[in-house]
Amino acid sequence: KPLPTAKPLWKRLIVSLSLNNLLFGRIATRSKSVLGIGIGRDRLSAAHVVTAKQVRHIEWIKQINLPFTLFSGTPTPDIGHALSSLLGELCGEVKRSHIPIQIALPDPVVSLRVFELDAIPKTRKEQMALTHWRFNKELNLGARAIECSCQPLGVDNNKHLLLAMAIDQDWLRCLKEACRAAGVISTVIDMAA
Q1: Residues 91-103 pLDDT 10s
Q2: I want to staple 192 with a disulfide (CB 3.0 to 4.6 A). Which of 60, 104, 110, 134 is the partner?
Q3: What are the strands of the beta sheet with 146-156, ordered from one edge?
Q4: Cβ-count burial of 98 within 10 angstroms (0-12 exposed, 13-18 middle, 19+ buried)?
Q5: Does the predicted model carry a pTM greater than 0.85?
C-alpha cells in the first residue's frame, strides 16, 4: 500500500491564518537582512545586519567622514553628486539589492512635535495641511518649503494628539536623489532618535 503524500506546507496551514503568519514569519527571518545608514552632518555610517535562525548579527559596519558639511544652507548639485558617490562607496556590497534599507537623519535636521488639538481633522489631506501650517507658524520658516508627515496618536486629557515630523524639502530631495543615483533605494527615511 503506497504511503500517503503530505500536502505542501502552505496547503496545510490555510486553516489557521495566525499559525500561517507565525511559521512563515519565522521562516522568512532566517535569511532576512537589512541595511541601516546614518547620515550625519559630517559622517556617513552603515551597518548590514543579517537575521539567521532568529538571531541577528552584524555582517559589517563602515564609516566615511564627509569632506563637506550637510544640512546647512541650501544643498548644491556638487554636494548631491559627492554624496551619491560616497553612498555608493559605503554601500557597495548591497546597493541595488532587494533588502530593506533604513536611513536615519540627525535629530536637529528633523523637527518632531506632538500637537495637542481640540479635534483632529478627519481627512489625511486636512491633517497634512494643518501639520504644514503649524510647523510654518512654530518654526517661522517663511518661504522655505518643508516635507511633513503626521500620525494621530489618540486622546490624552481631552486633547487629541497628532505626532508630526518635518524636514527641509530641498535637503530631503537632495538625499533621495543621491541615494537613487548611488543605487541605494531606501524603505524608510527617519530621524535617528
Answers
A1: 887 777 778 888 8
A2: 104
A3: 111-117, 159-168, 146-156
A4: exposed
A5: no
